[in-house]
Amino acid sequence: MLLLTGREQEYLLHAILGAHGIAAPGDFFLWSQGPLQTLLPHDILMCAQLDADGAVLRSEAWHSAAPDHALLRERQGQLAHLALAWRAGGQGAAVIDGVLVHGSVGDAGGSFFALFAVMPADAARQAYVLELLLPYLHVHWLALPGSQRARMTGPAATRAASARELEVLHWVREGKSNDEVGEILGISGTTVKSHLQRIYKLLGVSNRMQAVSRGIALRLLSH
C-alpha cells in the first residue's frame, strides 16, 4: 500500500466529502473538475455502465474544454477495448494504453471509469488514488437523475436481490452487527454474512458502508 502525503490526504478527504453533495449532473461536473481533477489530473473522464458480461451499455464524457467531437468519438471507441482489457487484467486500478482505468463488477452489471490525460504521471500512485475514489464515482455517477444517465434502476436491482437480502441490508443500514441482524430475523450470524457477501457481489461493492450507500442510490433503501 502506498502512503499519501499530507497534502494528498487533505485533497482526498476534500474529494470524499464533496462527493456526498452530488445530487445533479452539474454537481458531478463541478466535483470531477475540482476535487477529482486536483488528485487525478485529466482531460476527459469517461464513465460507462457495463452489463453482466462486461460490455459497455452506455457511456458519458466529462470535460471542461470545448469538445473536439472527433477526439470524443475516438475516446468512445477506445472505451470498450479498455473495459475488456481491464477485466482480463484482473479488474484492478491500472494504466492501460496510457489511460488510467478502474471499475466495479457485479451479477447485475457494473461501472467503468477511464481518465485520459496529456501529461504522464506516477501510474502506481494514481491507480491507488483511483481505487480509493472508485466507490464514490460508482455510486454517485450511476445515481445521477436524467434520462441521459446510464444507471441500473432500483426495480432491476430489487428483482436480483431477494426479500431477505433487502431485510439484511436494511438492518445493516441501522448499524446492526451480523449477530444482531440474525437475532432480529431469526437466522444465524453466519447466514447473515452469506447474505451480505451476495449483496456485495450484486451491488459491486466490498464493504457494509458501500453497500448501504449503493442501496440508497439505487432506491433499494429509503434515505
TrEMBL record:
Keywords assigned by UniProt, alphabetized: DNA-binding, Transcription, Transcription regulation
The keyword Transcription regulation is assigned to this record: yes
Single Gene Ontology BP annotation: regulation of DNA-templated transcription
SMART domains found in the cross-reference section: HTH_LUXR (SM00421)
UniProt xrefs under Pfam families: GerE
A single GO molecular function term of this UniProt record: DNA binding
Domain HTH luxR-type: 154-219
Transmembrane annotation, as ranges: none
Name assigned to this protein: Helix-turn-helix transcriptional regulator
Species per Swiss-Prot/TrEMBL record: Janthinobacterium lividum
Lineage of producing organism: Bacteria, Pseudomonadati, Pseudomonadota, Betaproteobacteria, Burkholderiales
